Amino acid sequence: MEEINDNLYHKIIQLYQETSSVKETAKKLGTYPIKVRRVLITEGLWNSNTSVQIGSLYARGLSVAEIAKQLFISEKNVQSYLPYSRGQYGGDNRSDEAVRSEVYRERMHVAESSQIKKLNQNTNQHTNQHMNPDKEMENNRMDKLDILKERTRQLAEDRPIPYAIRLHLELDMEDKALGTNELGILVQYGKMTTNISRDIIVPGDITLHALHYAINRAFGWQNSHLHSFHPYEDDYNMMIKSGKLTDWAKLAGMYFRFPCEDYEDIYWDDDYKAGISVKNWMRKKYTGPYYYGGTREYFYRCQKDVKELYEWQPTLEIRKSFGEWMDECRELTEKTGDKDAKANMIKRIAPITEVTITELADSITFEGGFDELIERLPIYDILLMPGMIQNFDSWDFSNRLILKNSEKEEICLAPVTSPILNAIRYWYDYGDDWNVKITATACYETKEKYKASGNPIEPMEEHRPVCVDADALPVCDDIGGIYGYCNMLEVLHGEDLEEKESMKEWARGMGWTGRKTNPPNIL
C-alpha cells in the first residue's frame, strides 16, 4: 500500500479541523482526496457505511480481494478505505491517542466552524465564464423559486398550502432503555418534565431541508454531523408494499432520494464560515422563502439513477446480508475448526426487476439508505395534518409527465405528492444516534385563523419558525448520545471539582450553557 510522510499526515488532521471538507483539505495541501480520507479513517475522524463494512471485514482477517468480492466493489476501492499502519506514515513517537486527543481539543475551540461541508466551489464550471458568479447563483435560486411557485399553482384549488403548522418535536428514546438513574438525572439536572421536546410553529411552506436547521437550533446542535429524514418502519413498509425495487422506484424523486455519497450536492448550502454567529447563520437557513439548490433530489435525476441501475445490473447475484454471512462463517469455523473457513455468499441470481430493496442493499454497497426522504419536499406534502386520513392507495402513477418550467432538467417537478406519514423520524449524528419524532399537532389554513389562535404573528410575517413550548434543557454535539448527556449532567453536578471544571469548559466549547432559554428566544 502507499506510504504517507508523517508531516503530511498531521497537516491533514490539522487542516481538516478548519475546512471540515475532504476535498478542500486535499486541494489546499496539494494531495489526493483518497489520501486525506484514509488519514481521517485512521484517526477515527471520518466514516461511512462503506468504510465501516470494509473495516469490519478487514479486522476479521479477510484479504483485500475477498472484501472486494463480498462488497461487490473493486480492490482499489477497498484499499482506499483501509486505515494506514504506523509504518506507512512515519515513525513519530506520539501515540494515535495523543494525536486524536489533540485534534479533539482543537475541535472544541472551533466547534462553531465544524460544519459538514463548505459550499460547493464548482458552480462556475457550469456557468458562462463571463458571468458574475453571484449573479449566476441568484439566477439559479430564482429558477428554483419559480419551480416552487409552479407547484403552488398546481395545488391552489385542490390542496392549498396552509399559512402555518404547529409541530411537536420529541427526542425518540424508546429504543434506549433508559433506567431509573438516567431518567432521574434528566428530571433533576436536565430540567425535564415529561420528555426532551420542543413545540414549534413553522410557515406552511417550510421544507424538510429548512426544518433540519430549525431542529438543530431547537435542540442545541450545530450542524456538525450528517443527518437524514425517514418514515417510521411500519409506514415505510406500507409505502413499498411488495418490498420490491420496482415499487420503490415509482416513488424515487417523489418521496425518496436515490442513495448516493455525493455529499457536496446533498449538503449544497453548508457555507458556514468561521467567525460568524452560528445562531444567525442557522436562522437564515430556516427563514423563507425556501428552495432546494442541489440536483440529486429532483424527480428527473432520481429516475435517471434508477434507469442507470437497471442498465448496469439487468441481473443480480443476490447475496446474503453481511450479518447473516458472518454468522454462517462463524458456524462453519466452529464446525470445521478452520478459522479461515468462508461460507458461500450467493443466495441466487435474479433479474433486477424481481429483486427486493433488502436484497439489493445486501448485494450492492450503497451510501445511504433507500428510506431517506428527499428534503426539497415542503413538510405539508408528506406529513399528515390533524384530521387527515392515512391512505397508501392514493397515488396516481398514470401521469408521469415532467413539467419543464425551467431549462434545467435536473430541477423539474415531480408528480405532486400526497401527505402520507403520521410521523417523520429525523436522524442526526449517526454515532451519537439522536432521533427526533416529528408530528403535526395543529394546522392553520389562513392568516386569519392563525391570528385568532393567539400565537406569535411576527415570526410568521417574517417567514420563519418560532418555538412556543420547550421541555428540558438542550442537549449538545459529540456528547455520546443520551447516555453521554446523562453522564455530563451527573459530572457537572458531582463533587469532583477538577472533573466538574473540565466538563464545564468542554460543554462551553460546544455552546452548552446549562441555562434554560425562554421558548420564543430559542429560534
Number of strands: 8
| Strand order in the sheet with the most strands | 3-6-7-1-2-8
Number of helices, counting only DSSP H or I runs of 4 residues or more: 22
CA-based gyration radius: 24 Å
> Helix share of residues?
40-55%
Describe the structure.
This protein has about 525 residues and is an alpha+beta fold. The protein has 3 domains: about 1-80, no CATH class; about 145-305 and about 370-520, MM3350-like (Structural Genomics Hypothetical 15.5 Kd Protein In mrcA-pckA Intergenic Region, Chain A, Roll), CATH 3.10.290.30; about 315-360, no CATH class. Helices cover about 40% and strands about 10% of the residues. It contains 22 helices and 8 strands. It has helices at about 5-20, 20-30, 35-40, 50-60, 65-70, 75-80, 95-110, 135-155, 180-190, 210-220, 235-240, 245-250, 265, 280-285, 300-310, 320-335, 355-365, 445-450, 460, 480-490, 495-510, 520, and strands at about 165-170, 195-205, 225-230, 315-320, 345-350, 425-430, 435-445, 465-470. It has a 6-stranded antiparallel beta sheet with strand order 3-6-7-1-2-8. It has a two-stranded antiparallel sheet with strand order 4-5. Strand 6 and strand 7 form a beta hairpin. Helix 1 (about 5-20) packs across helix 2 (about 20-30) and helix 1 runs parallel beside helix 7. The longest helix is centred in the N-terminal third of the chain and has 23 residues, at about 135-155. Mean pLDDT is about 80; it is low at about 85-145 and about 400-410.
